[in-house]
Design brief:
Elements (H helix, E strand, L loop, with lengths): L3 E5 L4 H12 L3 E6 L8 H5 L7 E4 L5 H11 L3 E4 L6 H6 L1 H22 L4 E7 L22 H20 L2 E7 L2 E2 L8 H13 L6 E3 L5 E2 L2 E2 H12 L6 E4 L5 E2 H11 L8 E3 L17 H7 L7 H17 L2
Parallel strand pairs: 1-2, 1-4, 2-3, 4-5, 5-6, 6-11, 7-10, 8-13
Antiparallel strand pairs: 9-12
Helix pairs in contact: 1-8, 3-5, 5-6, 7-9, 7-11, 9-11
The structure holds NADP nicotinamide-adenine-dinucleotide phosphate and ligand G4F.
């Protein structure tokens, strides 16, 4: 029997990599794509899979449209990756973030409960749940303390997933994923903002790069590795919760150093600290302990931060050169 998957958020970074992974495994892959006035398929195109996935016009805020998407595609696995995922925006649009990132997940869960008998469900949880960290290395048992409207919305979605697993016996898993990046990362996130600027500065198209808190620390991995962890969770006998991380944390400052030095530049000559990029409340440091994912899923991060950042700088150097 052909295995099939429905991915909400298929047009985002993780959605595109997950679609590529599942197609490679022989899945029939469908994706929820909300109507947008401009092109949102560029990532699927860059990975060469745009023509291989079935797109269903639907929105996680509209339960009826999700029911229809499930009915039309009859997936065996449902991956809920849709979100307003940019933390900075979540203070500017807190209610929208709650509706898409929080209630949107509840809509997808409810659709699976109503018409998705036997379907497996994955929720894109996040290390932002740990926020003001309560343990030096965060794992599945570390208490949560979200620090943004985005984190709070994700907390609701996380517990709804666990609640539906316990209440209705749904095979539902949460992946508490730490930051993961790639050449397909949105330009507003700090790694891609830096690698794009490095390419522009190197090619004489920009001089300065304005950043906020460069002393914040993150546990950064490669998105291609992390979608594999999602798939592995879905293959387990039972749904569960897993931290997915590299186990190494680095400052934004040192990430800049790696990016600039890859093309022979010094970050100190170009980075300008700009108050507009500081957040009302910051997550100062994240450092994950992926021991459970390693032991139970046989998963391990394969890409170092240096490899990741140089891959991203090289991709942006090509993009900028191509205009
Ligand atoms: P992303 O690039 O921002 O993608 C988000 C996706 O959600 C896009 O496809 C977007 O569609 C879609 N979307 C937004 N509003 C929607 C709506 N109302 N209905 C249906 N789809 C909607 O995010 P990502 O980096 O791939 O992350 C995937 C998921 O993992 C997100 O839930 C994110 O919060 C979570 N997460 C990410 C990380 C990370 O470091 N990347 C870490 C932990 C958790 P458009 O493109 O058309 O707007
Ligand atoms: O790249 P960021 O915007 O990612 P953030 O806030 O950690 O969130 C990402 O990872 C989460 C997992 O932990 C996901 F759930 C979430 O969806 C998203 O994918 O910012 C990283 C750090 C922050 O401390 C921020 O304050 O970089 C700092 N930073 C400093 N200057 C900046 C900037 N961030 C951005 N975006 N832009 C700056 O100019």
């Amino acid at each position: 029997m052909t295995r099939s998957a429905l991915i909400t958020g298929i047009t985002g970074q993780d959605g595109a990599y997950l679609a590529q992974l599942l197609l490679g495994k022989g899945y029939a892959v469908a994706g929820v794509s909300p109507r947008r006035s401009s092109d949102n398929l560029w990532r699927l195109r860059e990975l060469g899979v745009e023509g291989d996935v079935k797109l269903v016009e639907a929105d996680v805020c509209d339960l009826a449209s999700i029911l229809r998407a499930i009915d039309e595609t009859k997936p065996t696995e449902v991956y809920n990756l849709a979100a307003q995922s940019f933390v900075g925006t979540s203070w500017k649009q807190p209610l929208l973030t709650g509706q898409v990132t929080g209630l949107g997940a509840a809509n997808v869960l409810e659709a699976v409960r109503l018409v998705g008998k036997g379907m497996r469900f994955y929720q894109a949880s996040t290390s932002e749940l740990f926020g003001l960290i309560q343990a030096e290395r965060q794992d599945e048992k570390t208490p949560f303390y979200p620090r943004s409207p985005y984190g709070v919305a994700k907390l609701y979605a996380h517990w709804m997933t666990i609640n539906y697993r316990e209440s209705f016996g749904i095979h539902a898993s949460t992946g508490i994923l730490f930051n993961h990046e790639s050449p397909l990362r949105g330009i507003e996130f700090v790694t891609r903002k830096v690698t794009d600027a490095v390419a522009r500065i190197k090619q004489g198209k920009q001089e300065k790069l304005h950043l906020g808190n460069i002393d914040a620390k993150r546990d950064w991995g490669f998105a291609g590795d992390y979608v594999d962890a999602m798939w592995r969770m879905m293959q387990q006998e039972q749904g569960d919760d897993y931290v997915v991380a590299t186990g190494r944390t680095t400052t934004v400052r040192d990430m800049c150093r790696i990016a600039f030095s890859h093309v022979g530049l010094k970050y100190e000559d170009h980075v300008v600290i700009d108050p507009q990029f500081f957040r009302p409340a910051e997550v100062d440091v994240l450092l994950g302990n992926p021991a459970k994912a390693e032991a139970k899923l046989g998963w391990k991060a394969t890409t170092s931060l240096e490899q990741l950042i140089t891959m991203m700088v090289d991709a942006d150097m090509r993009r900028v050169a191509a205009g």
